[in-house]
UniProtKB/TrEMBL annotation:
Main location: membrane
GO cellular component term, pick one: plasma membrane
Keyword Transmembrane: yes
Protein's membrane topology: Multi-pass membrane protein
GO MF term set: purine nucleobase transmembrane transporter activity
Organism: Halorubrum aidingense JCM 13560
Family that this chain belongs to: Belongs to the nucleobase:cation symporter-2 (NCS2) (TC 2.A.40) family. Azg-like subfamily.
Intracellular or extracellular location(s): Cell membrane
Name of the protein described by the UniProt record: Xanthine/uracil/vitamin C permease
Transmembrane portions of the chain: 20-39, 51-76, 83-103, 109-127, 139-156, 176-195, 202-223, 235-252, 259-281, 301-323, 335-356, 362-380, 392-420, 432-447
Alphabetically ordered keywords of this record: Cell membrane, Membrane, Transmembrane, Transmembrane helix, Transport
Length: 454
C-alpha cells in the first residue's frame, strides 16, 4: 500500500530503502530541535518564564511545525525532503528583526504569519516558481555554499571562537582560556570525525556527547554549575499557550505602515532564503534539470509555505527545506515516503522535550559549523573560468556572511549577472525578467540603505 501511495517503484526505489532514508534524514536534521530554540530564545522573552522554559516551548513549536510541513511534503509534493525552521532564517528573525530593529517578537511572528499566507497564495498561482526560475544559474549553483558560510560564521561566533574586535571587526577569541570554546572545539573534532567516517546522525551524536562531557566535568567538580552547564534546570514544559497564538497580539497592536514594512522585509528575505535553500538541497540531491530548475517546484514550495504559516501561529520562524535531506537521498530516498518517516520521527521526539533544556548552548551550535562546512560542496558546480559565473557566484557566496544576510547575497549575485553579461557583449543571453528583477533589487537597496524602508 505504501509503495503504491508514493509510486515508489516508478522512482527506482523500494519501501525498505525509503524507510532507511527517512530515518537517516531525520537523524541528520534532528539537531534543529535543540538549535532552533536556543537561537529564537535570544529574542523571545515571556514574562514569568525562565530562559530554559521558553527554550522548551520553542522546541515543541519547532517539532510540530516541522512535522506538519514535512507531512505536506510527503503527501502532496511526494519529494524526499525534510522541512523545519530554517537555519539562517531563524538567525534573521532573532538577531536582525527583533534584537537589531527592536521589533517585538509577537509582531515578528505576525509578520511571518502574513508572509506565509502570501507565500501560499503566490505559490498557488505559480508566481513564486516563475520568479525563482529567473535566478541566474550561477546563483542557483552557489547559493548552498553561501548559506553554509553564513551558518559557519554564526557558529564560530556563538562558540566564541571568533569575537568582536575594534580594529578588525572580528578576531580569534581567547580559545584555550575559555572552557566554553574548548568543549566546543572538542565537540567539533568529534562530529567532523564521525561525519568523515560516514556515521549516520553524526551531528546529533556530536551534540549529545559534547553536552554529556560538560555535565560530567561539572559533576566531577572541575567546573561550577553555570560555567559549562545550565545553572538551573526547569521542570518539563509542555504548555506552549504563552507562545502559541502570540502572533494574534502582534496583529492587534501594530502601526500599519511600520507593520507593512516589517512584513515586506520578512517577505523579501524569506522569499529569497527559502528559494535558495530549496535550490540548494535539490542541487545536492541532483534533482535539478539541465537549466538548474526543480521540476514541479510549486509543490515543495507549498509545503514550506504551509509550514511557515503554521509555524508562526505556534511560535517559530520560517520553515524551509533542509539541506540535510541529502543524507537520506544518498541512502536511496526518492519519494515522499522518505519524508513521511521524517515527519513521524519529529512527532516521536516530543517525548524528549524535558532533555532539551539540559543541553548547553555551545553543544547545540556545533551543528552550525558542521552543516556550514558540508554545504560548501556546492562550489564545485560553479564554472569559475566564466566571468559572469565567477562574479555572480562569488558575490552570492561572500556577501551572505559579510552582510549577515542570505537575501543580500542572493541579490548581489542576481544584480551582478546581467551587468557582467552586458560587459561581455552577451546581453542576449539574459532574459527580460532577469533584467527587471535586477533593476527592482537595485531600487530596493537604494531605498533600504538610505533608510526609506526597513
Amino acid at each position: 500500500m505504501l509503495a503504491a501511495r508514493f509510486n515508489v517503484e516508478a522512482h527506482d526505489s523500494d519501501v525498505r530503502t525509503e524507510l532507511v532514508a527517512g530515518l537517516t534524514t531525520f537523524l541528520a536534521m534532528s539537531y534543529i530541535i535543540v538549535v532552533n530554540p536556543f537561537i529564537l530564545a535570544e529574542a523571545i522573552q515571556i514574562p514569568g518564564y525562565e530562559f530554559f522554559e521558553v527554550v522548551q516551548m520553542i522546541a515543541i513549536s519547532t517539532i510540530v511545525a516541522s512535522a506538519i510541513a514535512t507531512l505536506v511534503m510527503a503527501l502532496y509534493a511526494n519529494r524526499p525532503f525534510g522541512l523545519a525552521p530554517g537555519m539562517g532564517l531563524n538567525a534573521f528573525f532573532a538577531f536582525t528583526v527583533v534584537i537589531g530593529l527592536g521589533i517585538s517578537w509577537q509582531t515578528a511572528l505576525a509578520a511571518v504569519f502574513v508572509e506565509g499566507v502570501l507565500f501560499m497564495a503566490l505559490t498557488a498561482v505559480g508566481a513564486r516558481k516563475y520568479i525563482i526560475q529567473l535566478f541566474p544559474e550561477p546563483v542557483k549553483r552557489a547559493v548552498g555554499a553561501g548559506i553554509g558560510l553564513f551558518l559557519l560564521f554564526i557558529g564560530l561566533q556563538e562558540l566564541q571562537l571568533v569575537v568582536p574586535d575594534d580594529a578588525t571587526l572580528v578576531t580569534l577569541g581567547g580559545v584555550f582560556g575559555n572552557p566554553w570554546a574548548i568543549l566546543g572545539i572538542l565537540g567539533l573534532a568529534l562530529t567532523f570525525a564521525l561525519w568523515a567516517r560516514g556515521i549516520t546522525g553524526a551531528i546529533i551524536i556530536g551534540i549529545l556527547t559534547t553536552a554529556a562531557a560538560g555535565w560530567a566535568l561539572t559533576f566531577a567538580g572541575v567546573f561550577e554549575r553555570g560555567v559549562v552547564t545550565p545553572e538551573t534546570l526547569p521542570a518539563a514544559q509542555y504548555d506552549i499557550t504563552p507562545l502559541a497564538g502570540a502572533f494574534v497580539d502582534g496583529l492587534a497592536d501594530i502601526e500599519p505602515l511600520t507593520f507593512a514594512l516589517v512584513v515586506f522585509t520578512f517577505f523579501f528575505v524569506d522569499f529569497f532564503d527559502t528559494a535558495g535553500t530549496l535550490i540548494g538541497v535539490s542541487q545536492f540531491g541532483d534533482f535539478l534539470d539541465e537549466d538548474g530548475d526543480l521540476p514541479e517546484m510549486e509543490k515543495p514550495l507549498m509545503a514550506d509555505a504551509v509550514g511557515t504559516t503554521v509555524g508562526a501561529m505556534i511560535g517559530t520562524s520560517t520553515v524551509t527545506t533542509y539541506i540535510e535531506s541529502s543524507a537520506g537521498i544518498e541512502e536511496g530516498g526518492r519519494t515522499g515516503l522518505t519524508a513521511l518517516v521524517v515527519a513521524l520521527g519529529f512527532i516521536a521526539s516530543l517525548a524528549l522535550i524535558p532533555f532539551v533544556a539540559a543541553i548547553p548552548e555551545y553543544a547545540s551550535f556545533i551543528a552550525l559549523i558542521v552543516v556550514g562546512v558540508m554545504m560548501l560542496q556546492g562550489l564545485v558546480e560553479v564554472d569559475w573560468s566564466n566571468p559572469a559565473w565567477a562574479v555572480s557566484a562569488g558575490l552570492t557566496v561572500t556577501v551572505m556572511p559579510f552582510a549577515y544576510s542570505i537575501a543580500d547575497g542572493l541579490a548581489a549575485g542576481i544584480v551582478a549577472y546581467p551587468l557582467i553579461k552586458v560587459a561581455l557583449g552577451e546581453y542576449n543571453d539574459v532574459r527580460l525578467g532577469q533584467y527587471v528583477l535586477a533593476v527592482l533589487l537595485v531600487v530596493y537597496y537604494v531605498l533600504q540603505t538610505r533608510g526609506v524602508i526597513l
